[in-house]
Amino acid sequence: MTVKRDYYDILGVNRKTSKQEIKKAYRKMALQYHPDRNKSPDAEKKFKEINEAYEILSNPKKRQDYDQFGHAAFGQGAGFSGQGPFGGFTKTYTSSGGTPFSSGFGGFSDPFEIFEQFFGRSPFQQGPKIPRYGLALSFMEAVKGCEKEVNIGEKKRKIKIPAGIDDGTQIQFTDFYLTIDVKPHGTFKRNGYDLFINHKISFTLAILGGIIEIPTIDKPIKLKIKPGTQPETLIRLRNKGIPHLRGRGRGDQYIRLIIEVPKKLSKKQRKLLEEFEKT
């Protein structure tokens, strides 16, 4: 059985390294081991290994999963094999030296496309450049999935968008790339597959407790507030977050309770609070 190297070791960083420093480490390593720059026999292998590590550590959700479960977090998708959320694929590349080689990337990004994002078009790609298109989606369209009719060149194409797709995701089709642009939502904030909302409650409700209605991406639900709830209390709703692209489970929804304090009080309200303070 092949033992995979630690992704942090591959990039020469530690587990507390910031995303920006990981990007710097990637740029340095990718330039060092790019097969057109480095003619050592293992340069191609190391270049793919570096890009695989960057693919995981540059993505907050994947990095969190890796930190918790290691390579097992990605199952058959770990490395450049298996089926990704849009199916596996294998490509054949030719370096500028004319040597062909192939590689399957499964659920991970093509490493030479990652390199292209940093340094311009990859020298491994030959022939005409594949066109890129953008598709804007509302927050709920991205969360729930949808079907869109878009103009690709001179043709109209129906594109099926899977539920749970995130902003900036790039989908590769046979003859074009499609980059997803998800518009922000006024209530929900997304982090990976989890959702976060701020919900205001009165200070009397926080003291006495009660029932409130909370929005979710499915439908509003009733939530019990305990007496004596403190400001900034965070409540977790399991499996109320974003559907996983692989179709297995969902993230969670978190509600941060913001307690509103009245700016003005009537004489009666002030008197009652003063009596409460005395007791």
Secondary-structure topology with pairs:
Blueprint: H1 7-11, H2 19-33, H3 43-57, H4 60-69, E1 90-94, E2 100-104, H5 111-119, E3 132-137, H6 139-144, E4 146-152, E5 155-161, E6 170-172, E7 177-182, E8 189-191, E9 194-202, H7 203-208, E10 210-214, E11 221-225, E12 234-237, E13 253-260, H8 267-278
Parallel strand pairs: 3-7, 9-13
Antiparallel strand pairs: 1-2, 4-5, 6-7, 8-9, 10-11, 12-13
Helix pairs in contact: 2-3, 3-5
How does this model look, in words?
The chain folds into three domains: 1-129, DnaJ domain (Helix Hairpins, Orthogonal Bundle), CATH 1.10.287; 130-184, Urease metallochaperone UreE, N-terminal domain (HSP40/DNAj peptide-binding domain, Sandwich); 189-260, HSP40/DNAj peptide-binding domain (Sandwich), CATH 2.60.260. It has a four-stranded mixed sheet. It has a three-stranded mixed sheet with strand order 3-7-6. α2 runs antiparallel to α3 and α3 (43-57) crosses α5 (111-119). The chain has 279 residues and is α+β, with helices and mostly antiparallel strands. 18% of the residues are buried. A hairpin with a 5-residue loop joins β1 and β2. The chain has helices spanning 7-11, 19-33, 43-57, 60-69, 111-119, 139-144, 203-208, 267-278; strands at 90-94, 100-104, 132-137, 146-152, 155-161, 170-172, 177-182, 189-191, 194-202, 210-214, 221-225, 234-237, 253-260. It is elongated, with a radius of gyration of 25 Å. The model is unreliable at 76-108 (pLDDT under 50). The longest helix is centred in the N-terminal third of the chain and has 15 residues, at 19-33.
